[in-house]
Sequence to fold (97 residues):
Amino acid sequence: MRYKIKFESKYLKNLFREIPFDGDMRHDMQQLRKLENWIINGPGGYMSAIYFHCLKTQYESDYLAILKELEPEKYKEEIDEKEMTEIFTIIKSILKI
Fold:
């Protein structure tokens, strides 16, 4: 049986092109497709927003690569926010707040 998931981003198309297919890989493909869909359309409600956050954390490098390709402005905002958080954490540890 052939299992097909359509991806919008070239990153995911290339990622899964040469990888052997098994049950765990199918789960990852589905999760990354959900993540990609939410990057494009946004989560629909409270629970999907929580799930989106969990997937962003679990697949952080994939999330950033997809975001960079599909939503470059959001990618820049995400990176800027991440850098500010890291800077704040360093300052906080120095001041021992």
Notes: The chain has a mean pLDDT of 87. Residues 30 and 97 are 42 Å apart (CA to CA). The chain is about 75% helix and 0% strand.
